[in-house]
Structures are given as C-alpha cells and as structure tokens.
Design goal:
By secondary structure, this protein is of the alpha/beta class. It folds into 2 domains: 148 residues, Medium-chain alcohol dehydrogenases, catalytic domain (Quinone Oxidoreductase, Chain A, domain 1, Alpha-Beta Complex), CATH 3.90.180.10; 134 residues, Rossmann fold. 26% of the residues lie in helices and 24% in strands. The model has no long low-confidence stretch (mean pLDDT 92).
Length: 317
Amino acid sequence: MVYKEYGDQEVLQMQTVPIPVPKEHEVLIKVHSVSLNASDWENLTGQPLYTRMWGLSRPGIGILGSDISGWVVAVGEKVSTFKKGEAVFGDLMEIWGGFGAYLCAPAKAISRKPIDLPFNKAAAIPQSATIAYQALHYRENWLKGKSVLINGAGGGAGSFAIQIAKLKGAKVTAVDHPSKIKFMKDLGADHTVDYTKSKFTELGKTYDLIVDFVAAHSIKAYRKALSPDGLYVLIGGSLNNIFQTLFKGSFYSLFSKKKMKILAAKPNKNLTEIIDLIHENKLKVCIDKEFQFNQIPQAMQYLGKGHAKGKVVINYE
C-alpha cells in the first residue's frame, strides 16, 4: 500500500512491487500484522511539517507502517541472531515499510516474539508502549502518590500510559474525547476530562506530571497547570508547540523547579520490561479495531478522525 503524494487516506494505492532482498545485516520479514500510530497519519498528510524531513514536497517514505510482527523468511550473510522461520516484532520507524507484505529490517531493530503473544497484539505494542513507558520513567519511584495528567489518554500510547502510571502508584487524570471516557475509566483513570467541554489548563488544578500526546494548549497554560516542582513531557503535536517547548520551555526550566521537555523516545527500548508486565497480567494490550490489508485506507481514516480507543491493527492473514 503506497502513497506518492501527501493527503488523506484517498492517496493510498495498492501496488505490486518486488520483494526486497536483505543486505548483510538485515532480515527479510513476511508481515503478519501492523498497527497504526499517529506517526502514520502525520506522515501520510505531511502535517506537522517536521514529518516532511523524508520529503518536503513529495513523500520520501513511500510505504508507511512501522509497528510490525511477522516471520523471518531470509537473513543477510552477517546475521547470526535470527533464523528463517522465527517469529519477530518491533518498531521500524527509522525504515518503515509495514504496509507491505514483505520488508527488510536491520536485525538489531527487531526482537523475538514471545510464543504466547498473538501476532496482532505483538504488533500493537512496540511504539505506543515504549513511548508511554519512557515518558513515565522520569525518576525511580517518583510517581508514587503523585498526580499525573495524560492528554490524549484514549489513544494507543495513552491507553498504555494510563495503566503504567497506575502501576507506579500515581493518581491519574485522563483527557480525551467524550466517547472515550468509559474506556479510560476502565483502564484505571481516577478522573477524566472531556476536552470538548473543559480545558484542563483552566480548571484551577495542578499536576506533578503532564504527559502530552496532543499539545493543544500554549506552553504558558501547561506551565500554569504544573505543581511547583512538576514536569511537563511533550510527545507530539504541532510544530509551533514543539518549538515553544524546545525554546520557551527550556528557558522557563532554567529559572524554575517546574521542568518542561520533549521526550526523545528510543525505539524498542524497554520492550523486555513491557512484555514482562503483560505476562504478569499487569498491562493490557487494548485493540479497538482490526482490518484486513485491503482495508488500510479505511483503517487510516478511522485513526485520522481520532476515533480509536487504544490500538488499530491491520492483519495480512
């Protein structure tokens, strides 16, 4: 499923292309499942502008999809860590290609899929869960008893963030569309905010940690919503909000105990800890809807409209 121009789901086209050949440090993967992330929609539309680093006027990626699971069907001559037939999964955001039946990936970028973890759930984990995990691990044991607000808590990464924050002993306020309120409460949120009715930055409450997947408010408004020694972590949003956090947020942080930063996420880091939590039934993988390969445009439309409660997954088989 390729795209040659920026736009909505309508620019996605089914196309037959040659099966790639793995280089010496790569493996060839037959994809079983791929999950959608906000980054897929952003790169499809070319918005925010920083997503155009792969191509300013036309997409440089061509085939989207980064969170995959599947089987190794061939290995490069210098790969010794994987064998043909092994089940694997991982976040391939640096190379993409999950919207194809086959893709080549560096061997170091993937992990073995646990035998008892279904392919659809394995594909739903890497990017969303690791981003949530890393955003909430500021200091060891810091969150116990603290107040945490998660903006955009009803989506893929947000659904993991609610659960991880609760596991760390935090009191969680989850912000999202009213259609996701029950979903967020079921995941353990102590309080919820319907953003169509209220701006949490204007409710007069402060939080020890704000994890922001949306960046819908000004940096001053976020700063006002922080407790005296609180931390604001930006995950994604408009270019304006990113620059505000990068420059104004950094400036404010120099002269205050309130800290503001952008998360520099590390792909696939902490997957072992996350899988352990899943095996211990402490962390759920929330899949909202599943689609078949030829339904990728419909799946992307569903994601782009912000309807997804948790993850959206594409299955090839």
